[in-house]
Amino acid sequence: MGKLLGTYPLFGLTLRTATVRSATWEGLADQEGFVRTELINMLVELARGRVGMVIPGYLYVSRDGRGLPWQTGVWSDAHIEGLRRMVEAVHKQGSVIAAQIAHAGGRTRPNLIGDKRPVAPSPVEGFSFGDTPMEMTISDIHNIIDAFGDAARRVKDAGFDALQLHAGHGYILSQFLSPLFNMRDDGYGGTAEKRRRFVIEVYERVQRAAGGSFPVFIKINSTDGMAGGITVEEALETVKDLSSRGLAAVEVSGGLAGSDDNRPGRKGISVPSEEAYFQEAAYEFKKNLNIPVILVGGIKSYEIAEDMLAGGKADLVSFSRALICEPHLIKRWQEGDTRRARCISCNLCLKEGLTGNGIACVANKKSKDGDAA
Ligand SMILES: Cc1cc2nc3c(=O)[nH]c(=O)nc-3n(C[C@H](O)[C@H](O)[C@H](O)COP(=O)(O)O)c2cc1C
Q1: pLDDT tens profile 301-311
Q2: Which candidate in 8, 58, 60, 171 is catalytic?
Q3: For the chain, which terminus, N or C, has the lower number of CB atoms within 10 Å?
């Protein structure tokens, strides 16, 4: 047997497989971001399907940081209780569970954040879902760092095993890192080193709030998938700096919601050669770092996933859409049916989530309707 389906030691715990459910917005919280039973049920299915570490969809750290409707929140102490129920339910099925925390920055719409105007490192037009965002003042920066810290304390209180910072896909941490979004000429922009300052300050605050030994890791863009965006070298420098401060692992991703063919979840991955599209970046990270590297992006085939581990490109393999289509994919592979995931990367699962009933695989739905007819 290869490495994918055996146990893997991470964060002082034993993962039942070297697989991760990459954070995936489920669209199943209530209007204020409180956990609903349907959300817990979705995550429990992933644990029953033997995913090693489950990462629920990004949790917004403050009311003005929500990126999508029915997103789960971690912006008040009142959210802890529902999150704790979620953690306990996943633990009961034998998986590790980490919380991804995020702030949307400019990548949101006023109607999602109490009709306020979104804030961002710089007022860059065209990258926001709606209005051009307002440039953050130094006091905005401090308030958002505080919000990340408070969220980290709640994550720890809720019983999560680890915390992941979302520094990819054009949300606030990635906005600061990227030359496409950060035009500042103060201490938070102007050079690569200054652009990474916000991320480092958030990391340090979060680590302090969660306690020194609590595992904090990051999901980061290795490329923005657009000319003028972040480079692998720069992303690697940021992660090197963070790992010198105790970062526990890195998940290598890329793309922006608006980067068309290069978005984080690329469409139409129909043959194995198109899978694992961030593997070269992950390999660079693996060669230059001493922390576990998690690879995400278009992985559907058991053989490709094993190749990534055998070839030293990653330590763990992460899946999002394949597990929306088949929550028990890993179990199926473990039981000997190693056929490729059925997911066709159509991305209609996300559209489906915007209807208000949670993400769902449209192809699955169609075949069920067909069966019933
Ligand atoms: C419906 C949906 C929701 C997503 N939500 C998140 C999220 O909350 N946080 C995140 O880091 N990435 C999110 N992503 C991106 C995925 O985690 C992943 O990086 C991307 O889809 C590529 O992996 P895949 O090919 O296995 O789907 C989402 C993707 C989809 C399709």
Answers
A1: 999 999 999 99
A2: 171
A3: C
Distances (CA, A) of 64 to 29, 96, 110, 275: 16, 29, 9, 35
Share of the chain above pLDDT 90, in %: 92
Please indicate whether residue 166, judged by its CB atom, sits closer than 6 Å to ligand 1: yes
- Which tokens go with 149? 């810290």
Task: Tell me, yes or no, whether 3 lies in a domain.
Answer: no
Pocket test residue of 173, 278, 295, 320 for ligand 1, highest count of atoms within 8 A of CB:
320
Confidence of residue 368 (pLDDT cuts 50, 70, 90): low
Q: Which CATH number covers residue 276? A: 3.20.20.70
CA of 327 to the centre of ligand 1 (A): 14
SS3 256: strand
For residue range 157-166, list pLDDT tens digits in order.
Answer: 999 999 999 9
Question: Under a CB-based contact definition with an 8 Å cutoff, are residues 6 and 18 in contact?
Answer: yes
Determine the structural domain holding residue 91 and report its residue range. Answer: 8-372
Judge contact between 98 and 163, C-beta under 8 A: yes
259 lines ligand 1 (CB under 6 A): no
Domain assignment present for 171? yes
Does 58 qualify as catalytic in the annotation? Answer: no
Judge whether 287 lies within some domain.
yes
| Within a domain: 242 | yes
Distance CA 240, CA 31 (A): 38
